[in-house]
TrEMBL record, chain A:
Full protein name: Sugar ABC transporter permease
Native organism taxonomy: Bacteria, Pseudomonadati, Pseudomonadota, Alphaproteobacteria, Sphingomonadales
InterPro entries: ABC_transporter_permease, MetI-like, MetI-like_sf
Limits of the ABC transmembrane type-1 domain: 70-283
Keywords recorded for this protein, A-Z: Cell membrane, Membrane, Transmembrane, Transmembrane helix, Transport
Locations listed in the record: Cell membrane
Pfam family, one: BPD_transp_1
UniProt record similarity statement: Belongs to the binding-protein-dependent transport system permease family.
Length: 293, 435, 287
């Protein structure tokens, strides 16, 4: 082993060891747990632990709430990703205009919600979304929309949480897109303008290809993020009303830590894992088709 | 399972409703006292202190019970209040991590579970188990050994609007199902926009009260299978659904009824099946609904009142407590008739000690139905999965009420789902590893 | 020409106004959080929702932060200790996190060792694994190690900074090899090269990373919620969530707790925003 190699291992071994302990080993163990019936009985006495093969997975397939939580999570991602990315991109484009003054100030203020604690701001939003005394319904009242029971109506609860989540996270991708937009070749843009290309055509044919890879990466990360929503329903709705905001992760938490069915909960975790993997793969394929990667 | 949390926090939610509408609350009490109270910088944990965990109101108010104990024994006590909605997982993870407090409150149905996993110690002092209602003792047993001391009892009763009932020609609600439903129809005819009953569809208590009134047992084969396809439970479920079908009860869940007490005061419904904690709310919000406008009665049975289930809270000592003697002394103090009576004045909890019931404090007419029901308590199956069984059965019952299933499909689904939940237990019982 | 200029100017004014309005809407919840926290009890429960307190009151903060003696019994939300806990946990995870990830990131960029490329690929791949998959078994492992209900149990998982390692590696790639090679020829040890040559160049990146880590740890919720049983060890988000579930309707008190939780990091972010946003922008934009 060379001197350099020794140093390299000295530098990397500690963090690799921790990654092994808190990420790799537990992930492998999760796979092992998901084929057992680890439950309260096993917690009481190890000899009660049994091997069930795919039993947990078939069991989940017959549990309506599991499907409902999958549906809710899909809805969160389906509505949330375009909303969050759209707002981020729109804001970044707006801030990119040459005529906008005090850009750093706006950037910092728009980014501020991102650094706050989910728990604390969820508490704030629970009041903003209050049916009778909330600012949101007050503002909607101005444009003639009647009071919405945001957190009590099973049809409004997902949009309500999405408004909150979008508010909180859009600043991050806004900054990321700002960075990407600054790399859009100015001369190409000028050439397009001289060719008489309209605003939309310039966006479609110059800006979009240039920021494509960034957009794709942001989409991948956002999908993964929206599939892992937990704290918002935990603090704002307890997964209700009528289980309309029970997400896969919330379901897993309940199954695992409330009822201590670690076998079933690990199976849920794995379904989530596989879903994220598939979606990442699909997105990467789409990206490759459009030559963004 | 979510509804699980929702039902478990039954009380917490009612508390929210109460606070939202600006009634006098613990906070109000505290705020008033805060002005005179001492503001000291916060100290770290006192190493000599016993640790006590209790939920919701019990947790909030238990500190008031401690000065007397500390004066008598010299042992300080630290109380940690857990929200109902997070209590079950907090206790389980604390047990798994060896971090349980010395003494903890456990509600109905959790004692067997925590005894099974070896979290709580058996009660060795026989005196602690004397002077109790017999049915409450059964709920704290695990393998024939008591593992907790009943602290308070909360049987379900019905609260009714005296004035509205009088308008319909009743002094008190009839005690049998047919008469009760007929009363509901009359109330509905007089006030078609309002309802006779409030039975929230995500709470299991009403349906399970009806079921236990029939005297049927809901599980069979040593509590390893569902027994929902039996004529008695079918009758209970059919009766339950008919109240919604006839428009006597609104088909809503708890989140759609943010402040039940305000709705009760406004006459949105006339009959409110609930527990003793409502007494405190009614007392605090007497400006909204005067004491002479409501009354209490036992829940109706198929042919007159019958047994309903009842223990709300018990106190247990952790196996890992380093000072078991002090911990049991605290349990003894908290479950004494005198302390239970003091708690009754503070938050309305009904004493589990029988001797407390001869105290003049408990002779108020509103408490008479509770006193009668105390002598007629049913016993829930004492199994680990019971909490979940109730929740899942209610989820299916909700679908039956909403006509997404017929009654017979619902019963079959309940049996199937419960058998699924009890699969592990069944295997262990068959292997002789579990009683 | 004049027409075009004025059209441009109107466009500019419109764009600026749009940005200002958007910023106002986005910052409104935070501003409202602060003003409500100073309202007297119950004032926010009104329609239309009041934005400005009728009188500025500290009673919510007093109730939230002070321990009070009532009828001989102590009452305490234990928020002050939670602030201390959060500070300690966040500071430790940041410090240890930097200690572990900065040298590793450098090694992955500049030191040649067998298996480097393969390890790097594995690290990138493992970014896709959601931490929640590992959570349940991790609890069992920590139970065996006796780390449940301890600060170490909270801090340890946050040290697995894959993202941080890759982040540092990316930044280190920009350092010219010649500088390092020259020092090697002079006979400097690898540790010395890292300390005296690489680390000073990585200072801005390290500050950015420290900020990321501190904020991440301060705001972390799910894992501390699971690992910490004892209220004395609660971090702020866990303590606030516990209050929020029981005191849902106490608007002003909850706002005060939200202010206490968010303000420290907001101020830290505002003070160091140049590094934070600069780190995200990757040096592509100045100012």
């Amino acid at each position: 082993m060379t001197r350099q190699e020794r140093a390299a291992w000295m530098f990397t071994a500690p963090v690799l060891a921790i990654i092994l302990l808190v990420l790799v080993l537990p992930t492998v163990l999760a796979l092992a747990l998901s084929v057992t019936d680890y439950s309260l009985y096993a917690l009481a006495d190890w000899s009660n632990l049994g091997f069930v093969g795919f039993g947990n997975f078939t069991d989940l397939a017959r549990t309506p709430l599991f499907w409902r939580s999958l549906g809710n999570t899909a809805l969160f991602a389906l509505l949330g990703v375009p909303a969050a990315i759209g707002l981020s991109l729109a804001t970044a484009l707006l801030l990119d205009a040459k005529t906008v003054r005090w850009k750093p100030l706006w950037r910092v203020l728009l980014f501020a919600p991102y650094v706050t604690s989910v728990v604390a701001t969820a508490v704030v939003w629970r009041f903003l979304l209050n049916t009778r005394f909330g600012l949101v319904n007050y503002a909607l009242g101005w444009v003639g929309i009647g009071p919405v029971d945001w957190l009590g109506d099973p049809h409004a609860s997902i949009p309500a949480i999405l408004i909150f989540v979008t508010w909180k996270i859009f600043g991050y991708n806004m900054i990321v897109f700002t960075a990407a937009l600054s790399a859009v070749p100015g001369d190409l843009m000028e050439a397009a303008r001289l060719d008489g290309a309209g605003r939309w055509a310039r966006f479609r044919h110059v800006t979009l290809p240039a920021i494509g890879p960034t957009l794709l990466l942001a989409a991948v990360m956002s999908v993964a993020g929206f599939l892992q929503i937990f704290a918002e329903p935990y603090v704002m709705t307890l997964g209700g009303p009528a289980q309309s905001t029970t997400t896969v992760l919330y379901f897993m938490y309940q199954e695992g830590f409330t009822w201590w069915n670690l076998g079933r909960a690990s199976a849920v975790a794995f379904v989530l894992f596989v879903l994220i993997l598939i979606l990442t793969f699909v997105q990467a394929r789409i990206g490759r088709r459009y030559e963004w990667l | 399972m979510l509804a699980g949390a929702e039902i478990a926090c039954h009380k917490a939610r009612m508390k929210c409703g109460r606070e939202r509408s600006g009634g006098v609350t613990r906070r109000g009490v505290l705020a008033g006292a805060a002005a005179t109270g001492l503001a000291a910088c916060t100290t770290r944990r006192d190493p000599n202190a016993l640790r006590l965990w209790a939920m919701s109101y019990e947790g909030d108010y238990s500190p008031h019970l401690m000065p007397a104990f500390t004066r008598a024994t010299g042992i300080p006590v630290e109380v940690q209040s857990l929200p109902w909605t997070a209590a079950h997982e907090k206790l389980l993870t604390a047990h798994a991590g060896g971090a349980l407090p010395d003494v903890m409150m456990l509600p109905n149905g959790w004692v067997g579970e925590f005894a099974l996993v070896g979290a709580i110690a058996p009660v060795t002092d026989g005196a602690l188990l004397a002077d109790l209602f017999p049915a409450t003792l059964a709920t704290v047993e695990h393998r024939g050994v008591s593992h907790a001391v009943p602290w308070s009892v909360a049987p379900q009763v019905q609260f009714y609007r005296r004035d509205l009932l009088a308008d319909a020609g009743y002094d008190a609600p009839p005690e049998d199902w047919a008469g009760w439903r007929e009363m509901g129809r009359r109330l509905k005819r007089r006030r078609p926009d309002d309802y006779a009953f409030l039975m929230l569809l995500n709470w299991w208590d009403a349906l399970f009260t009806f079921a236990s009134q029939t005297g049927t047992s809901l599980l069979r084969e040593r509590d390893t299978r569902g027994n929902f396809r039996n004529p008695a439970f079918r009758e209970a479920l059919a009766f339950y659904r008919s109240l919604f079908d006839e428009g006597l009860a609104p088909p809503i869940v708890s989140t759609e009824m943010q402040d039940p007490l305000a709705a009760f005061a406004q006459g949105y419904f006339t009959i409110y099946p609930s527990g003793p904690s409502l007494l405190l709310d009614l007392h605090r919000r007497r400006s909204e609904i005067a004491a002479d406008r409501w009354g209490v009665a036992r829940m109706p049975g198929p042919r007159g009142p019958g047994p309903v289930s009842g223990v709300s809270a018990a106190l247990a000592v952790s196996r890992t407590s380093t000072r078991p003697d002090a911990a049991w002394a605290l349990v003894r103090h908290m479950t004494s008739a005198a302390t239970e009576l003091r708690f009754q004045t503070l938050i309305g909890n009904l004493p589990a000690r029988r001797s407390a019931w001869s105290d003049p404090q408990l002779t108020a007419p509103a408490l008479a139905p509770f006193a009668a029901q105390m002598l007629d308590l049913s016993v829930d199956p004492n199994i680990v999965e019971w909490e979940r069984v109730r929740i899942e059965v209610q989820l299916i019952a909700e679908r039956v009420v909403r006509h997404l299933m017929t009654i017979d499909e619902g019963l079959a689904t309940m049996d199937r789902r419960v058998d699924q939940l009890l699969a592990k237990r069944r295997a262990l019982v068959q292997a002789g590893k579990l009683a | 020409m004049a027409v075009k200029v004025s059209r441009l100017r109107i466009g500019a004014i419109l764009t600026n106004a749009l940005v200002a309005v958007l910023t106002l809407v986005v910052t409104l919840p935070l501003a409202w959080m602060v003003t409500v926290s100073f309202m007297p009890r119950g004032e926010s429960n009104a329609f239309p929702p009041p934005f400005w307190p009728s009188r500025w009151s500290l009673e919510n903060y007093h109730e939230l932060l002070a321990r009070r003696l009532i009828d001989g019994a102590w009452f305490d939300y234990r928020i002050v200790p939670a602030i201390g806990n959060s500070l300690f946990v966040a500071a430790m995870s940041t410090l240890l996190g930097l200690l572990l990830t900065v040298p590793a990131g450098y090694a992955f960029a500049k030191l040649r060792f067998r298996g480097r490329e393969r390890l790097l690929k594995l690290l990138i791949a493992s970014l896709v694994v959601p931490g929640q998959v590992a959570m349940l078994p991790l609890f069992l492992i920590f139970k065996q190690l006796g780390l449940i209900n301890s600060y170490a149990g909270v801090i340890l998982p946050s040290l697995a900074g894959i993202f941080a390692v890759l982040f540092v590696r990316q930044a280190t790639l920009a350092i010219p090899d010649e500088m390092i090679d020259a020092a090697r020829l002079d006979g400097a040890s690898e540790a010395r090269i890292f300390r005296t040559i690489v680390l000073p160049l990585l200072t801005p990146v390290t500050v950015t990373l420290a900020l990321f880590m501190f904020l991440g740890s301060w705001n972390d919720f799910l894992w501390p919620l699971i690992v910490l049983a004892d209220q004395h060890l609660y971090t702020l988000p866990v303590a606030v969530a516990a209050i929020a579930r029981e005191h849902a309707a106490d608007g002003e008190l909850m706002m005060a707790s939200a202010v206490v939780t968010t303000m420290p990091v907001l101020l830290l972010f505002l003070a160091l925003q140049r590094y934070y946003i600069g780190g995200l922008l990757g040096g592509s934009i100045k100012g």
